[in-house]
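Please check this record.
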Amino acid sequence: MDSKRISIANSEGAASTPTKKDVLVLGGNGFLGVYAVQALAHSGHYTIAIANRNTSYFDSAERLAATGVISLHWDRRHTPFGEAPEIQAYFATRPLLHAIIDFSCYTGAAAHDVATYLLEADVQVEWYVYISSDSIYEVGSPKAHPEKPTEEGIDDHRPSSLQDQAQLNACDAYAHGKLEAEEVLQALQPASSWSYVFLRIPDVVGPRDTSYRWWFYQILLKLQSRTQVPLPYVQEDRDGRQMSLVYVKDVARAILQVLANGDEHDSNMSKRKASVKNTALNLAHDETWTFPQIMECIAQEVAENMSASPQPPQLRFPLLFALNRTTDFPSVKRGPISTLRARTLLGWEPTPWLEILHKTVEYFESEAVWQDARFVKEREGVLRMALQQVAKYDKQEEFLSAIRDVYELDVSMLDIRNAGWKADVIVEDAIWTATHSEL
Protein backbone atom coordinates (compact mmCIF):
# COMPACT_ATOMS: atom_id res chain seq x y z
CA MET A 1 0.00 0.00 0.00
CA ASP A 2 1.28 3.49 -0.81
CA SER A 3 2.80 4.94 2.33
CA LYS A 4 1.42 8.37 1.41
CA ARG A 5 -2.11 7.08 1.44
CA ILE A 6 -4.23 7.33 4.59
CA SER A 7 -6.10 4.07 4.83
CA ILE A 8 -9.63 3.60 6.06
CA ALA A 9 -8.24 1.45 8.86
CA ASN A 10 -6.41 4.47 10.25
CA SER A 11 -9.27 6.89 9.74
CA GLU A 12 -11.27 6.14 12.86
CA GLY A 13 -9.43 8.82 14.78
CA ALA A 14 -10.43 11.32 12.09
CA ALA A 15 -14.15 10.65 12.52
CA SER A 16 -16.46 13.59 12.85
CA THR A 17 -16.37 15.84 15.87
CA PRO A 18 -19.38 17.90 16.95
CA THR A 19 -17.87 20.96 15.30
CA LYS A 20 -17.18 19.42 11.90
CA LYS A 21 -19.37 17.97 9.18
CA ASP A 22 -18.55 15.01 6.97
CA VAL A 23 -17.91 15.59 3.28
CA LEU A 24 -17.20 12.77 0.84
CA VAL A 25 -15.41 13.75 -2.36
CA LEU A 26 -15.65 11.36 -5.31
CA GLY A 27 -12.43 11.83 -7.21
CA GLY A 28 -10.68 14.71 -5.52
CA ASN A 29 -7.14 13.83 -6.58
CA GLY A 30 -7.09 15.65 -9.94
CA PHE A 31 -6.60 19.25 -11.02
CA LEU A 32 -9.89 20.63 -9.73
CA GLY A 33 -10.39 18.18 -6.89
CA VAL A 34 -7.19 18.86 -4.97
CA TYR A 35 -7.78 22.61 -4.91
CA ALA A 36 -11.32 21.99 -3.66
CA VAL A 37 -10.17 19.58 -0.94
CA GLN A 38 -7.54 22.07 0.19
CA ALA A 39 -10.13 24.85 0.38
CA LEU A 40 -12.51 22.65 2.38
CA ALA A 41 -9.75 21.60 4.75
CA HIS A 42 -8.49 25.12 5.28
CA SER A 43 -12.00 26.30 6.16
CA GLY A 44 -11.83 24.17 9.30
CA HIS A 45 -15.49 23.17 9.04
CA TYR A 46 -15.27 19.70 7.49
CA THR A 47 -13.94 16.19 7.96
CA ILE A 48 -13.10 15.18 4.41
CA ALA A 49 -12.81 11.79 2.76
CA ILE A 50 -11.86 11.22 -0.86
CA ALA A 51 -12.71 8.11 -2.86
CA ASN A 52 -10.65 7.40 -5.96
CA ARG A 53 -8.01 5.16 -7.53
CA ASN A 54 -5.22 6.88 -5.58
CA THR A 55 -3.48 8.17 -8.68
CA SER A 56 -1.44 11.37 -8.41
CA TYR A 57 -0.69 14.33 -10.66
CA PHE A 58 2.03 16.90 -10.15
CA ASP A 59 2.34 17.19 -6.34
CA SER A 60 -1.24 16.16 -5.53
CA ALA A 61 -0.23 13.35 -3.15
CA GLU A 62 1.75 15.69 -0.91
CA ARG A 63 -0.90 18.42 -1.01
CA LEU A 64 -3.67 16.00 -0.06
CA ALA A 65 -1.61 14.41 2.70
CA ALA A 66 -1.08 17.84 4.23
CA THR A 67 -4.86 18.28 4.60
CA GLY A 68 -5.29 15.18 6.78
CA VAL A 69 -7.91 13.83 4.37
CA ILE A 70 -9.23 10.27 4.73
CA SER A 71 -8.35 8.33 1.59
CA LEU A 72 -10.62 5.53 0.37
CA HIS A 73 -9.72 3.27 -2.50
CA TRP A 74 -12.47 2.97 -5.11
CA ASP A 75 -12.08 2.29 -8.80
CA ARG A 76 -15.29 3.70 -10.23
CA ARG A 77 -14.65 2.13 -13.62
CA HIS A 78 -14.88 -1.42 -12.30
CA THR A 79 -16.46 -1.54 -8.82
CA PRO A 80 -20.02 -0.51 -7.93
CA PHE A 81 -20.10 2.14 -5.22
CA GLY A 82 -21.79 -0.01 -2.62
CA GLU A 83 -19.48 -2.98 -3.21
CA ALA A 84 -16.20 -1.19 -2.52
CA PRO A 85 -15.01 -2.45 0.90
CA GLU A 86 -13.60 0.90 2.03
CA ILE A 87 -16.77 2.71 0.98
CA GLN A 88 -18.82 0.21 3.00
CA ALA A 89 -16.59 0.71 6.03
CA TYR A 90 -16.84 4.48 5.73
CA PHE A 91 -20.64 4.52 5.68
CA ALA A 92 -20.85 2.02 8.53
CA THR A 93 -19.91 4.84 10.90
CA ARG A 94 -21.30 7.77 8.92
CA PRO A 95 -25.01 7.46 8.10
CA LEU A 96 -25.24 11.25 7.78
CA LEU A 97 -23.19 13.40 5.40
CA HIS A 98 -23.19 17.11 4.93
CA ALA A 99 -22.23 16.71 1.28
CA ILE A 100 -21.03 14.55 -1.54
CA ILE A 101 -18.93 16.38 -4.12
CA ASP A 102 -18.69 14.40 -7.34
CA PHE A 103 -15.76 15.19 -9.63
CA SER A 104 -15.44 11.80 -11.32
CA CYS A 105 -18.87 11.13 -12.85
CA TYR A 106 -19.11 11.09 -16.65
CA THR A 107 -22.25 9.07 -17.38
CA GLY A 108 -25.81 8.63 -16.24
CA ALA A 109 -25.01 5.07 -15.20
CA ALA A 110 -22.20 6.26 -12.92
CA ALA A 111 -24.52 8.80 -11.28
CA HIS A 112 -27.25 6.17 -10.89
CA ASP A 113 -24.83 3.76 -9.21
CA VAL A 114 -23.97 6.23 -6.43
CA ALA A 115 -27.43 7.74 -6.03
CA THR A 116 -29.29 4.44 -5.77
CA TYR A 117 -26.83 3.16 -3.17
CA LEU A 118 -27.45 6.24 -1.04
CA LEU A 119 -31.21 5.69 -1.31
CA GLU A 120 -31.13 1.96 -0.63
CA ALA A 121 -28.68 2.28 2.27
CA ASP A 122 -30.70 5.19 3.68
CA VAL A 123 -27.64 7.43 3.83
CA GLN A 124 -28.74 10.97 4.65
CA VAL A 125 -26.96 13.58 2.52
CA GLU A 126 -27.70 17.29 2.68
CA TRP A 127 -25.96 18.35 -0.54
CA TYR A 128 -25.00 16.54 -3.73
CA VAL A 129 -22.65 18.85 -5.62
CA TYR A 130 -22.01 17.54 -9.11
CA ILE A 131 -19.14 19.02 -11.08
CA SER A 132 -20.69 19.21 -14.52
CA SER A 133 -19.57 21.04 -17.66
CA ASP A 134 -20.64 23.73 -20.07
CA SER A 135 -20.34 21.02 -22.71
CA ILE A 136 -23.85 19.88 -21.75
CA TYR A 137 -25.17 22.77 -23.84
CA GLU A 138 -23.58 21.15 -26.92
CA VAL A 139 -26.26 18.43 -26.90
CA GLY A 140 -29.14 20.81 -26.26
CA SER A 141 -31.54 22.43 -28.69
CA PRO A 142 -30.19 25.40 -30.67
CA LYS A 143 -29.70 28.43 -28.44
CA ALA A 144 -32.77 30.58 -27.94
CA HIS A 145 -30.64 33.72 -28.33
CA PRO A 146 -27.41 32.88 -30.22
CA GLU A 147 -26.03 36.37 -29.66
CA LYS A 148 -26.24 36.03 -25.85
CA PRO A 149 -24.17 33.95 -23.41
CA THR A 150 -25.57 30.49 -22.76
CA GLU A 151 -27.96 30.38 -19.79
CA GLU A 152 -29.07 27.75 -17.30
CA GLY A 153 -32.72 26.74 -17.61
CA ILE A 154 -32.98 28.17 -21.12
CA ASP A 155 -30.31 26.56 -23.28
CA ASP A 156 -29.97 23.20 -21.51
CA HIS A 157 -32.98 21.33 -22.91
CA ARG A 158 -32.52 18.41 -25.27
CA PRO A 159 -34.25 18.57 -28.68
CA SER A 160 -37.74 17.13 -28.79
CA SER A 161 -36.77 14.93 -31.72
CA LEU A 162 -35.14 11.66 -30.66
CA GLN A 163 -33.30 11.58 -33.97
CA ASP A 164 -31.82 15.01 -33.29
CA GLN A 165 -30.86 13.88 -29.79
CA ALA A 166 -29.10 10.82 -31.14
CA GLN A 167 -27.15 12.87 -33.67
CA LEU A 168 -25.99 15.37 -31.07
CA ASN A 169 -25.10 12.62 -28.58
CA ALA A 170 -23.04 10.83 -31.22
CA CYS A 171 -21.13 14.03 -31.98
CA ASP A 172 -20.26 14.67 -28.33
CA ALA A 173 -20.43 11.60 -26.10
CA TYR A 174 -18.77 13.46 -23.23
CA ALA A 175 -21.44 16.19 -23.24
CA HIS A 176 -24.20 13.59 -23.45
CA GLY A 177 -22.79 11.69 -20.48
CA LYS A 178 -22.47 14.77 -18.31
CA LEU A 179 -26.01 15.93 -19.08
CA GLU A 180 -27.35 12.40 -18.57
CA ALA A 181 -25.75 12.36 -15.10
CA GLU A 182 -27.52 15.63 -14.26
CA GLU A 183 -30.81 14.15 -15.46
CA VAL A 184 -30.39 11.06 -13.26
CA LEU A 185 -29.63 13.08 -10.12
CA GLN A 186 -32.52 15.41 -10.85
CA ALA A 187 -34.94 12.52 -11.35
CA LEU A 188 -33.91 10.76 -8.11
CA GLN A 189 -33.80 13.89 -5.96
CA PRO A 190 -37.49 13.83 -4.83
CA ALA A 191 -36.96 10.39 -3.26
CA SER A 192 -33.73 11.44 -1.58
CA SER A 193 -32.58 13.60 1.33
CA TRP A 194 -30.20 15.69 -0.74
CA SER A 195 -30.46 18.94 -2.60
CA TYR A 196 -28.37 18.95 -5.75
CA VAL A 197 -26.25 21.71 -7.24
CA PHE A 198 -24.77 21.27 -10.70
CA LEU A 199 -21.69 23.41 -11.29
CA ARG A 200 -21.29 23.83 -15.04
CA ILE A 201 -17.75 24.85 -15.79
CA PRO A 202 -15.96 25.76 -19.04
CA ASP A 203 -12.28 25.05 -19.73
CA VAL A 204 -10.47 25.36 -16.40
CA VAL A 205 -7.13 27.14 -16.15
CA GLY A 206 -4.55 27.53 -13.44
CA PRO A 207 -1.37 25.97 -12.06
CA ARG A 208 -1.14 22.16 -12.31
CA ASP A 209 -3.66 21.89 -15.17
CA THR A 210 -3.60 18.19 -15.98
CA SER A 211 -4.94 18.69 -19.51
CA TYR A 212 -1.59 20.41 -20.25
CA ARG A 213 -3.37 22.70 -22.75
CA TRP A 214 -2.19 26.02 -21.34
CA TRP A 215 1.31 24.64 -20.77
CA PHE A 216 1.41 23.29 -24.35
CA TYR A 217 0.60 26.68 -25.85
CA GLN A 218 2.93 28.50 -23.47
CA ILE A 219 5.84 26.34 -24.61
CA LEU A 220 5.05 26.73 -28.31
CA LEU A 221 4.68 30.49 -28.22
CA LYS A 222 7.76 31.00 -26.04
CA LEU A 223 9.91 29.01 -28.47
CA GLN A 224 8.25 30.30 -31.64
CA SER A 225 11.04 32.74 -32.45
CA ARG A 226 13.41 29.76 -32.74
CA THR A 227 11.17 27.10 -34.23
CA GLN A 228 8.72 29.17 -36.33
CA VAL A 229 6.08 26.54 -35.46
CA PRO A 230 2.62 28.16 -35.55
CA LEU A 231 -0.05 27.75 -32.90
CA PRO A 232 -2.89 25.46 -34.05
CA TYR A 233 -6.39 26.87 -34.19
CA VAL A 234 -9.64 26.31 -36.09
CA GLN A 235 -11.78 28.40 -38.42
CA GLU A 236 -14.19 29.48 -35.68
CA ASP A 237 -11.25 31.04 -33.83
CA ARG A 238 -10.23 33.01 -36.91
CA ASP A 239 -13.83 34.14 -37.26
CA GLY A 240 -13.69 35.68 -33.77
CA ARG A 241 -15.46 33.08 -31.65
CA GLN A 242 -15.54 34.15 -27.98
CA MET A 243 -14.77 31.68 -25.21
CA SER A 244 -15.29 31.37 -21.45
CA LEU A 245 -12.68 30.20 -18.97
CA VAL A 246 -12.76 29.60 -15.22
CA TYR A 247 -9.93 29.68 -12.70
CA VAL A 248 -9.43 26.50 -10.69
CA LYS A 249 -9.47 28.30 -7.33
CA ASP A 250 -12.72 30.07 -8.24
CA VAL A 251 -14.43 26.69 -8.66
CA ALA A 252 -13.14 25.60 -5.25
CA ARG A 253 -14.45 28.82 -3.73
CA ALA A 254 -17.89 28.30 -5.29
CA ILE A 255 -18.07 24.85 -3.71
CA LEU A 256 -17.24 26.37 -0.34
CA GLN A 257 -19.97 28.95 -0.79
CA VAL A 258 -22.54 26.26 -1.55
CA LEU A 259 -21.58 24.22 1.49
CA ALA A 260 -20.92 27.13 3.85
CA ASN A 261 -21.80 26.10 7.38
CA GLY A 262 -21.66 27.85 10.72
CA ASP A 263 -23.68 30.65 9.17
CA GLU A 264 -27.17 29.93 10.45
CA HIS A 265 -27.20 33.41 11.99
CA ASP A 266 -26.25 35.06 8.71
CA SER A 267 -29.65 35.74 7.16
CA ASN A 268 -28.20 36.70 3.78
CA MET A 269 -26.21 33.47 3.52
CA SER A 270 -29.19 31.41 4.65
CA LYS A 271 -31.31 32.90 1.89
CA ARG A 272 -28.59 32.21 -0.65
CA LYS A 273 -28.27 28.59 0.47
CA ALA A 274 -31.99 28.09 0.11
CA SER A 275 -32.02 29.63 -3.34
CA VAL A 276 -29.29 27.41 -4.82
CA LYS A 277 -30.99 24.16 -3.83
CA ASN A 278 -31.76 21.92 -6.82
CA THR A 279 -30.33 24.24 -9.41
CA ALA A 280 -27.54 24.49 -11.98
CA LEU A 281 -24.94 27.24 -11.87
CA ASN A 282 -22.58 28.31 -14.62
CA LEU A 283 -19.14 29.33 -13.36
CA ALA A 284 -16.84 31.39 -15.55
CA HIS A 285 -14.79 34.54 -15.60
CA ASP A 286 -16.75 37.67 -16.43
CA GLU A 287 -14.44 38.46 -19.36
CA THR A 288 -14.53 36.50 -22.60
CA TRP A 289 -11.81 36.21 -25.21
CA THR A 290 -11.04 34.95 -28.67
CA PHE A 291 -8.39 32.26 -28.90
CA PRO A 292 -5.78 34.65 -30.40
CA GLN A 293 -6.44 37.09 -27.58
CA ILE A 294 -5.73 34.39 -25.00
CA MET A 295 -2.48 33.52 -26.75
CA GLU A 296 -1.47 37.19 -26.87
CA CYS A 297 -2.17 37.52 -23.13
CA ILE A 298 -0.01 34.48 -22.35
CA ALA A 299 2.79 35.74 -24.60
CA GLN A 300 2.85 39.15 -22.95
CA GLU A 301 2.92 37.60 -19.48
CA VAL A 302 5.70 35.20 -20.53
CA ALA A 303 7.70 38.19 -21.78
CA GLU A 304 7.14 39.94 -18.47
CA ASN A 305 8.16 36.80 -16.59
CA MET A 306 11.40 36.56 -18.61
CA SER A 307 12.31 40.23 -18.25
CA ALA A 308 14.26 39.61 -15.05
CA SER A 309 16.50 36.98 -16.71
CA PRO A 310 20.10 38.03 -17.46
CA GLN A 311 19.73 37.02 -21.11
CA PRO A 312 16.01 36.55 -21.79
CA PRO A 313 15.13 34.77 -25.05
CA GLN A 314 13.27 36.87 -27.57
CA LEU A 315 9.59 36.14 -28.14
CA ARG A 316 8.14 36.36 -31.59
CA PHE A 317 5.61 39.13 -32.07
CA PRO A 318 3.17 38.99 -33.71
CA LEU A 319 2.41 35.35 -33.04
CA LEU A 320 2.03 32.81 -35.84
CA PHE A 321 -1.13 30.70 -36.21
CA ALA A 322 -2.07 27.90 -38.61
CA LEU A 323 -5.52 26.60 -39.41
CA ASN A 324 -6.02 23.01 -38.27
CA ARG A 325 -8.98 20.69 -38.63
CA THR A 326 -9.47 20.24 -34.89
CA THR A 327 -8.25 21.53 -31.54
CA ASP A 328 -9.54 21.01 -28.02
CA PHE A 329 -9.13 24.57 -26.76
CA PRO A 330 -11.79 25.79 -26.41
CA SER A 331 -13.54 22.47 -25.94
CA VAL A 332 -17.04 23.76 -26.81
CA LYS A 333 -18.57 25.42 -29.86
CA ARG A 334 -21.56 27.33 -28.47
CA GLY A 335 -19.60 30.20 -27.02
CA PRO A 336 -19.49 31.90 -23.62
CA ILE A 337 -21.75 31.10 -20.68
CA SER A 338 -23.69 33.49 -18.46
CA THR A 339 -22.73 33.59 -14.78
CA LEU A 340 -25.50 35.91 -13.62
CA ARG A 341 -27.20 33.16 -11.61
CA ALA A 342 -24.04 32.23 -9.65
CA ARG A 343 -23.27 35.86 -8.95
CA THR A 344 -26.82 36.57 -7.80
CA LEU A 345 -27.53 33.44 -5.76
CA LEU A 346 -24.06 32.71 -4.36
CA GLY A 347 -22.53 36.15 -4.35
CA TRP A 348 -19.68 34.50 -6.28
CA GLU A 349 -17.08 36.66 -8.02
CA PRO A 350 -14.15 35.47 -10.13
CA THR A 351 -10.49 36.27 -9.56
CA PRO A 352 -9.15 39.18 -11.65
CA TRP A 353 -7.84 38.00 -15.02
CA LEU A 354 -4.36 39.51 -14.60
CA GLU A 355 -3.88 37.56 -11.37
CA ILE A 356 -4.98 34.30 -13.06
CA LEU A 357 -2.66 35.00 -15.97
CA HIS A 358 0.32 35.78 -13.75
CA LYS A 359 -0.03 32.80 -11.44
CA THR A 360 -0.58 30.31 -14.26
CA VAL A 361 2.29 31.51 -16.45
CA GLU A 362 4.59 31.77 -13.45
CA TYR A 363 3.84 28.19 -12.44
CA PHE A 364 4.54 26.71 -15.86
CA GLU A 365 7.77 28.70 -16.10
CA SER A 366 8.91 27.66 -12.64
CA GLU A 367 12.06 25.66 -12.04
CA ALA A 368 10.07 23.06 -10.10
CA VAL A 369 7.87 22.20 -13.08
CA TRP A 370 10.88 21.76 -15.36
CA GLN A 371 13.39 20.21 -12.95
CA ASP A 372 11.54 18.52 -10.06
CA ALA A 373 11.96 14.74 -10.30
CA ARG A 374 8.32 14.27 -9.23
CA PHE A 375 7.03 15.86 -12.43
CA VAL A 376 8.70 13.65 -15.05
CA LYS A 377 5.36 12.18 -16.13
CA GLU A 378 3.89 15.63 -16.66
CA ARG A 379 6.92 16.91 -18.62
CA GLU A 380 6.79 13.87 -20.87
CA GLY A 381 3.06 14.36 -21.43
CA VAL A 382 3.24 17.99 -22.47
CA LEU A 383 6.31 17.48 -24.67
CA ARG A 384 4.58 14.65 -26.52
CA MET A 385 1.71 17.03 -27.23
CA ALA A 386 4.08 19.74 -28.40
CA LEU A 387 6.09 17.39 -30.61
CA GLN A 388 2.96 16.27 -32.42
CA GLN A 389 2.44 19.88 -33.49
CA VAL A 390 6.13 20.47 -34.19
CA ALA A 391 6.36 17.35 -36.37
CA LYS A 392 3.88 18.81 -38.87
CA TYR A 393 6.62 21.27 -39.82
CA ASP A 394 9.63 18.92 -39.44
CA LYS A 395 11.00 21.07 -36.64
CA GLN A 396 11.67 18.38 -34.04
CA GLU A 397 15.41 19.01 -33.77
CA GLU A 398 15.00 22.78 -33.51
CA PHE A 399 12.31 22.33 -30.87
CA LEU A 400 14.27 19.89 -28.70
CA SER A 401 17.36 22.06 -28.97
CA ALA A 402 15.33 25.06 -27.78
CA ILE A 403 13.91 23.02 -24.88
CA ARG A 404 17.45 22.11 -23.82
CA ASP A 405 18.67 25.70 -24.02
CA VAL A 406 15.70 27.61 -22.61
CA TYR A 407 14.56 25.20 -19.89
CA GLU A 408 17.91 23.50 -19.24
CA LEU A 409 16.18 20.15 -19.61
CA ASP A 410 17.99 16.96 -20.57
CA VAL A 411 15.43 15.58 -23.02
CA SER A 412 17.48 12.40 -23.50
CA MET A 413 16.24 11.32 -20.09
CA LEU A 414 12.56 11.58 -21.06
CA ASP A 415 10.35 8.91 -22.63
CA ILE A 416 9.09 10.82 -25.66
CA ARG A 417 9.94 8.21 -28.27
CA ASN A 418 6.35 7.87 -29.48
CA ALA A 419 5.88 11.62 -29.82
CA GLY A 420 6.27 13.63 -32.96
CA TRP A 421 4.31 11.50 -35.38
CA LYS A 422 2.90 13.63 -38.14
CA ALA A 423 -0.85 14.03 -38.11
CA ASP A 424 -2.70 15.14 -41.21
CA VAL A 425 -4.71 17.85 -39.51
CA ILE A 426 -3.34 20.97 -41.19
CA VAL A 427 -6.09 22.54 -43.26
CA GLU A 428 -4.16 25.46 -44.66
CA ASP A 429 -0.44 25.73 -45.30
CA ALA A 430 -0.40 29.53 -45.19
CA ILE A 431 0.61 30.90 -41.79
CA TRP A 432 -1.68 33.55 -40.37
CA THR A 433 -0.42 36.38 -38.18
CA ALA A 434 -2.83 38.08 -35.78
CA THR A 435 -2.22 41.82 -35.63
CA HIS A 436 -3.07 43.89 -32.58
CA SER A 437 -6.03 45.40 -34.38
CA GLU A 438 -7.47 41.93 -34.95
CA LEU A 439 -6.88 41.00 -31.32
Summary: Confidence is low (pLDDT under 50) at residues 1-14. The radius of gyration is 23 Å. Residues 14 and 374 are 29 Å apart (CA to CA).
